[in-house]
Amino acid sequence: MEPMSTKILVTVKEVAEVDDEFEISGLDVDDRYLEYDLNEWDDYAVEEAVQLSEASDDVEVVTVTLGPERSEETIRMALAKGADRAVRVWDDALANAGLLDATTKADLLAAVVEAEEPDLVLTGVQAADDSFGATGVALAERVGFEWAAVVNDLDYDADANVSSVRRELEGGVEELTDVEGPAVLTIQTGINEPRYASLRGIRQAQRKPLDVHTLDDLGLDASVADSPVTLTSMYEPESESDAVVWEGSPDETADELATFLREQGVVEG
Amino acid sequence: MTVLAVTEHRRGKLRTPSFEIITAGRDLADALDAELHLAVIGGDVNGFADRLNRDGVDAIHTVAEGEEFNHDVYTQAITAMAEAHDPDALLMPNTVNGLDYAPAVAGALDLPLVTDAVDFDAEGTLEVTREQYGGKVETTVDVEADAFALTIRPAEWPVAEGTGDAEIAPFDVTIDESAVRSSVEGFEEVGSGDVDITEADVLVSVGRGIEEEENLPLVEGLADALGATLSSSRPIVDNGWLAKNRQVGQSGKVVTPDVYIAVGISGAVQHVAGMKGSDTIIAINTDPNAPIMDIADYAIVDDLFDVVPELIKQFGGQAPS
Question: Does B127 sit within 8 Å of A232, measured CB to CB?
Fold first, then answer.
């Protein structure tokens, strides 16, 4: 019998992080105050996939990204950490669409899932920027895969294609669940320790395949980006803070805090 | 017109978001001139329905299927219920389990979905208020549709009170067992161990601002000098620098000490959920706009690496070098 091969598709999003001080221009934070990076949750998903590929032969890890050319730096980082190849989907129709909601993202990713036919799809629980937290489960529903959201432990049986997972519920409770494959698992931070890319990994990543697909390549048209959900405003929330701010040099502020704690009887001495 | 809101329970108990979603659902129903219906799926559905029958609820549909949450059962039951009652709005909690079925239900019903609402205005076009970039900005998202699905953030709406006169009735649905391809095998409490941070009178809590594991002794030194207990936000536990039993927040422990000193913690909503009940909150953070400042009673806007050693000195300790 031929050895079973396993393909794991990992969604990789490039997200913007905002500086402490920033300005909003139009419907987004001004680009001068944004730094782009691999979404933290996806970093854990990539690591989980790479660890599975290292633990057995014949596991291929493919990343998929919805994003402009700028995101290739982030994609190369995922490749440097051990993914085998990458797919990037972008199109003028998407660039002009504004907000991509969960339905649109699921439709786009579904086209890639249908082409790649993975056994397992790992996504981050959410993206650090818009934090919808819905893409993974929406994708699973769209392609008819089983799923589990907010997974912080994964034991994958490749032969049976069953994932035994722990889902991190609220209040320090974990749910132990078995999920039949093919499945989409949304990965929570803390499931593993994401590696740093090695210099060797970064060199190798430059030679790994990174295929770019337009909507047309995927058999989709611009209507995929049509959505009744639109972003109409962005603003800095009014501060609700009524904190007493102790001012001064560190020794002065420390003295204020210490005096306060003594007066409250919190500490002796 | 109908608003259908889905409730949540775990291990025999209704969870608080179930009572908050009644309040949010009533607001939405008033704006839409609609009835508020609740869905109760699994567990002691009749007992749950009695307790959920509060002011403003018009009808409660029960599905006695399974003891615990299973997303395949929930997805099928809610989809069938929506097809039967044709709600204009489907409201679900933005909880770990809510996010395990809401996108699937919205997909199956072809409804637009907006998650993690902190506010909404449904007079006219639905306008949903959400946060972005970890709470640094708020956004308004419009939904131009006859029907929509929305998940609401816990602890943003008050729990509903009073006694309602809802009609409680079983909803007849046949679950396709072949489409139930996940099974819950059990639960486990995590985060017990040598220390119980929920018992502490004073907590010194450390967050991402500590940057490196080797800097941790600085904050441990402060806790020691104060005779306080050390706790942390999520990233510290994710990194494996402290054990899970030290974690404050939604997925960790809910704490209510006399004094909570947040050192280098930005105050993500999941963290705040675990410590906002503290009597006095003191924040040490370089960012004056960090969300932690919204709930802090006292603050030092400065570098923790400058302030904490001075604090330790104040209490006769020696900062680790």
Answer: yes
